Amino acid sequence: MPRRKRQPQHLPSTPTDEAVASLPAARLLGIETSCDETAAAVVENGHVILSNAVATQIDLHAKYGGVFPEVASRQHILTIHAIIEEALKQAHVSLQEVDAIAVTRGPGLAGSLVVGMNVAKGLALATGLPLIGVNHLEAHVYSAWLSPSSEMLTPPPNFPLVALIVSGGHTELVLMNEHLNYQRLGGTLDDAAGEAFDKIARLLGLSYPGGPSIQKAAEEGNPHAFNFPRAWLEGSWDFSFSGLKTAVLREVRRMEESGRSLPISDLAASFQSAVVDVLVGKTLMAAQAFRAKEVLIVGGVSANKALRQTIEAQSTFPVRIPPLHLCTDNAAMTAAAGYFRLIQGQRDSLDIDVLPNWLLSEVMPPL
Ligand code: KG4
Ligand code: ZN
């Protein structure tokens, strides 16, 4: 259990305040270095963000058109200490006022993960604080529990819920009946949704990361200009984006061969709408089938405006999508997931290794 009990700073006044205030008090430092953001955050009781510092490496990788793993890990080494200091400073807490350290253990780039893991281990060793290794996809799910401050508490999500995790490396549809419990319904059979955005952006000559570039180009385009295929994969909760990718590639080659200039905005808008239709359609079907009380959309691709607008327009279920800065990688979500593991008793040893290919279906509740 957390070492200190702390009185809630504000008297409970709403059901949300009461629900959150009834949880054990614990302040966690979160550390995230799974890909190309170096991030640290301080979060109270799994809900309240006291600080959320993120140093993005996007500019460094843009010239390679994707994340260059060795550059990423070296940059994490250069940035991590300053980011942790910044997170503590912004939260107005010292390490002595933190109850545990949560760190991303995987999935992600091995060389990047070890930077965060080693710093977290060093801090845990020096302070005696509990170390909690967190799955990055679980962390994305817990971004939906975060509130911007103790004055603006958002009500915690209700179980059972269906969560769509859409990031650069993953597309997973899961059913959660309770905290830390994931029933995988399906996932991508080939590219992740974010990966498809990134690859199509590269094909169209748009900058990295592809998601925001496609979104921007699509704003000027007609989503009905090209009728790209939607892989519904009837009878399964899986996704596939390879057929769509090939269809866009074929269309681009055909136009290039005929000497036509590419209608980039129309291609981007039509591609985006094919991705969004399937993500939204299958998520809402799953919510219906499993009688979900609500739907979460999390991960980098959940920042997509068309995705947000489409699901909000079509859903008969409450839909929760984190604010934009919590969709992409950050450490507040790592600290939030770590909190729910801490209060269920998880303590990791200082010799845990990173797990670059850690599946959400392999994640266990603490014993
Ligand atoms: O969750 P995230 O920050 O990192 C991973 O865990 O992978 O997700 C990054 C992915 C990238 O593929 C990026 O292109 C995509 O999220 N992304 C978007 C948008 N913003 C970021 N995709 C579509 N629309 C966006 N606005
Ligand atoms: Zn992520």
Concise summary:
The protein folds into 2 domains: 175 residues, Nucleotidyltransferase, domain 5; 157 residues, Nucleotidyltransferase, domain 5.
Describe this structure in words.
The longest helix has 26 residues. The protein has two domains: 175 residues, Nucleotidyltransferase, domain 5 (2-Layer Sandwich), CATH 3.30.420; 157 residues, Nucleotidyltransferase, domain 5, CATH 3.30.420. The strands form two sheets. A five-stranded mixed β-sheet has the order 3-2-1-4-5, sandwiched between helices. It has 367 residues and is an alpha/beta fold. The protein is 40% helix and 16% strand. Strand 7 and strand 8 form a beta hairpin. It has twelve helices and ten strands. Bound molecules: 5'-O-[(R)-(carboxyoxy)(hydroxy)phosphoryl]adenosine (KG4) and zinc ion. The site of 5'-O-[(R)-(carboxyoxy)(hydroxy)phosphoryl]adenosine (KG4) has 19 residues, from helix 6 and helix 7.
SSE map:
Elements: H1 15-21, E1 27-32, E2 37-44, E3 48-56, H2 58-62, H3 69-91, E4 100-106, H4 110-127, E5 131-135, H5 136-142, E6 161-166, E7 171-176, E8 183-187, H6 193-203, H7 210-218, H8 242-257, H9 264-289, E9 294-298, H10 305-314, E10 319-320, H11 324-327, H12 332-343
Parallel strand pairs: 1-4, 4-5, 6-9, 9-10
Antiparallel strand pairs: 1-2, 2-3, 6-7, 7-8
The structure holds 5'-O-[(R)-(carboxyoxy)(hydroxy)phosphoryl]adenosine and zinc ion.
